[in-house]
Amino acid sequence: MSYRELRNFCEQMRALGYHRIISMENFRRPNFELVADILFWLAQKYDPNSDISDNIDEERHRIEFIKQITTLFVSKARLKINPKRLYMADVYAVQEILKISTFLYKAQVSPPADEEEIHDFSLPSKLSNIKSHKILAQEITDLATRLYDQLGKEDEVKLAREKALQFLSNVSRGGNSQSEQSYIQKCIQTILKQQEQNIQEMSKYVVNLEREQKQLEEKIKRKTKELEQAEKRLKGMTSVKPAYQEEYDRQEYELEKLYQTYVEKFRNLVYLEHVLDGQNKQAEIEQKKKNQILQGVRGVIQDAEMNELRGGDDDGNDDQLEQLGGDSRLQSSNKEKRNNNDFMRNQKGGFNRQQMDEDVEEGDDIDDLDGGVDEDEEEEEEDDGIENLDDDNEADF
Prior knowledge:
Shape: elongated
Number of domains: 3
Helix content: over 70%
Oligomer: single chain
Number of helices: 13
Largest sheet: none
Distance between the termini: 136 Å
């Protein structure tokens, strides 16, 4: 709630004739007694015949009081009031009370309507919106009941009005009666007391504000000192070199070198595994070729035996054996070496030339050994085949 609304509320209550002095500081904290007193006074001013209990000793009584007040102004005055805010009894409750006080203040200040305006009033000819007309009819009935209630109190109000007019006429005529002067003095004294109370409350409020201001200034000074000390400490910590920094830098440099070595060896290992897989595949292919040649030799030997048993020529058999012997000599091709060399040329980084040459030489030595072993095995198999043929021929003869 703004300061302007709170000020307007205080002025409206003073204009309506509220018997207590309302300060803007009364609502800084919840004050249910003051709010209940204001609401009860406004309800009595709006509808003196309203049956509202002013008992607020217990919680259920306070809740019932707020319900009665809200029901009264919502049903009769058509004001939207939030009962929860009224029960809070703080600054937010003033916003809801301000609606009621504004409604009554406007009714008090507004001039009476002219006769021409009253006679010019007429209902619209077209009843297009039935809902709005129902609301208007309800408002008319409510106003009529209020007017009837006010006319019923005319006897009491008439006496008070006549007394007030008589008092004003006597004062205007310049009468010096003791009663009038005493009444005026009493009114002036009450106003002065109210103003003195307001001044005292305001002075207390100013003193409290000054005290709070001094406390805040002291807190600001203390916090600024702490901030300066923290900044000095931070500068000292940043300027001082931490312990074991040199050893940490050295270990970090060594770790980087070890990582580079690890990467290089890992790449070499991958390459060597690739070469080994190629050599194993080549050995499997050569083994398959050897098995095929051995099967051919066996077939030729079996055919030769069958021909000898049938009395065939030995020249054809010798030619076939020579042909198979020539084919059985495995050609130690350098196909694997060429493949390895091409793969090494395509590699980019991670291997030095010396390691590549050493790997190629090792591969060549392995191939030479495998080729020599394979040739020895083939020669032994051919000799065994020839001896078996000689034995068979001797047995036939």
